């Protein structure tokens, strides 16, 4: 079958590295229609030196730009049932009162599960999320519904069937470590079979081993999951050093830190994404880096459930792979834009606390003092390229060979000159057209889904 190319011409923005944002004015990007792979990216007003030609072209309006899609590295799909409720309790009590109950409900009501997962997929795409790492429930069939709905929606989804042979809820637990391992292996096989008849570029869903966290998993189960991950080359996700009560419980029951438990059972790998990590020390973050493990930073849920903020700057300084997560429903917003804003706000609070501490100790906090805050451009990297790297994807950038995972953001109407959605622009501050970095920053601060007009995953338009 012949390959046809479709081109897009206009303004493109990406963050190739931390803190470095590139803005490409009047560029042309061409995609292989059948496979959704970028085959050309260069200035549009220069003669092409490439053999690539395109049969059709989309012009991006002057008040708009194309940005890579977001990655959500931590989301509990069944907890979308009660998003925005029950955030008044400590973590372990919250799990008993809300989370486990909701997960059990979906395992017993597949009609409800299908409704919730279909809605969740649609909402994620509408908010520009092109790839998501999902916690599911303990039942295989319910997780197959989750995988099917994500595949049907066209979103990249890494689906984790929960593994837990210990639970504070008597009716919501797997009967034994061996039963849990058998179920995990069965789900991996079923999830892979879901897309095996499709071409590789059409496969959106992948299974992930998911021990909930150390308090809900016996050593036998954790050891078996480590062996299964190694044998089948599977990604792993869990929670690590999330909250004070969880950390103390692990110390009491296991006599060690939970990072040591994961390491002991070969669950800290280059295929692992650990959520939160708020109680990890700088040396622990170096251990995370040495294992090649990634961290899902969930700033909003950390505010609610952790007595410590995540040491984001220290992790980045150690070249740890870090992306952002919404942590539905421990966080109440499914929009990664809010996670970006919250990551910056929390980091600035850390910097402020550090500065005041140094002043109180009689230290001047001179220019050599490391700034713990991140800026909006760094957060944009975490939401796009950083998340892609954590998931082992080639997306998050506009380069030849990368999949076309992108979103079109509209800042102002080209005819009226008016800002779109919550955005207002005035002639005395920044010129309305062409777009510039100040306007993109304003969108980062106050923009919302009204500014998002199209979303593509692997070249396939999933929102228009």
Automatic annotation (TrEMBL):
Record carries keyword Membrane: no
Family matches, as InterPro entries: Amidohydro-rel, Metal-dep_hydrolase_composite, Metal_Hydrolase, Metallo-dep_hydrolases
Cofactor(s) in the UniProt record: Zn(2+)
Gene Ontology terms describing biological process: guanine metabolic process
GO MF annotations in UniProt: guanine deaminase activity; zinc ion binding
Keywords: Hydrolase, Metal-binding, Zinc
Keyword ATP-binding annotated: no
Ranges of residues in domain Amidohydrolase-related: 65-462
GO cellular component, one term: cytosol
One Pfam family from the record: Amidohydro_1
PANTHER family from the UniProt entry: GUANINE DEAMINASE (PTHR11271)
The name this protein goes by in its record: Metallo-dependent hydrolase
């Amino acid at each position: 079958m012949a390959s046809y190319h479709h081109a897009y011409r206009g303004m493109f923005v990406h963050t190739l590295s931390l803190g470095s944002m590139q803005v490409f004015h009047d560029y042309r990007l061409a995609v292989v229609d059948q496979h959704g792979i970028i085959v050309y990216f260069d200035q549009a007003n220069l003669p092409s030196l490439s053999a690539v030609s395109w049969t059709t072209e989309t012009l991006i309006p002057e008040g708009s730009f194309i940005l890579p899609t977001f990655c959500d590295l931590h989301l509990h799909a069944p907890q979308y049932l009660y998003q925005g409720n029950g955030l008044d309790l400590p973590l372990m009590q919250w799990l008993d009162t809300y989370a486990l109950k909701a997960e059990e409900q979906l395992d017993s009501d597949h009609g409800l599960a299908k409704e919730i997962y279909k809605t969740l997929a649609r909402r994620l795409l509408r908010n520009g999320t092109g790839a998501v790492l999902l916690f599911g429930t303990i039942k295989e069939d319910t997780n197959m519904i989750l995988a099917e709905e994500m595949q049907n929606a066209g979103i990249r989804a890494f689906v984790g069937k929960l593994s837990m042979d210990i639970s504070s809820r008597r009716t919501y637990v797997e009967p034994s470590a061996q039963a849990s391992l058998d179920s995990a292996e069965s789900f991996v096989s079923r999830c892979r079979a879901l897309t095996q008849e499709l071409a590789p570029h059409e496969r959106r869903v992948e299974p992930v081993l998911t021990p909930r966290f150390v308090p809900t998993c016996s050593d036998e189960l954790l050891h078996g999951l480590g062996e299964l991950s190694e044998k089948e080359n599977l990604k792993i996700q869990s929670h690590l050093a999330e909250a004070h009560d969880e950390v103390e419980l692990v110390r009491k029951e296991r006599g060690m830190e939970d990072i040591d438990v994961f390491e002991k059972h070969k669950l800290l790998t280059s295929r692992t994404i650990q959520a939160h990590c708020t109680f990890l020390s700088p040396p622990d973050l170096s251990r995370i880096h040495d294992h090649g493990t990634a961290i899902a930073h969930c700033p909003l849920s950390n505010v609610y459930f952790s007595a410590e903020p995540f040491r984001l700057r220290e992790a980045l300084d150690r070249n740890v792979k870090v992306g952002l997560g919404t942590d539905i429903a421990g966080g109440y917003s499914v929009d990664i834009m809010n996670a970006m804003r919250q990551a910056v706000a929390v980091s600035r609070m850390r910097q402020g606390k550090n500065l005041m501490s140094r002043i109180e100790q009689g230290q001047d906090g001179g220019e050599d003092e490391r700034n713990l805050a991140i800026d909006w451009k760094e957060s944009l990297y975490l939401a796009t390229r950083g998340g892609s790297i954590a998931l082992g994807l080639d997306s998050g950038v506009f380069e030849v060979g990368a999949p076309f995972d992108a979103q079109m953001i509209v800042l102002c109407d080209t005819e009226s000159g008016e800002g779109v959605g919550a955005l207002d622009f005035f002639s005395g501050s920044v010129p309305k057209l062409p777009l510039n970095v100040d306007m993109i920053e304003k969108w980062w601060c106050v923009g919302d889904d009204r500014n998002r007009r199209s979303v593509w995953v692997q070249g396939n338009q999933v929102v228009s």
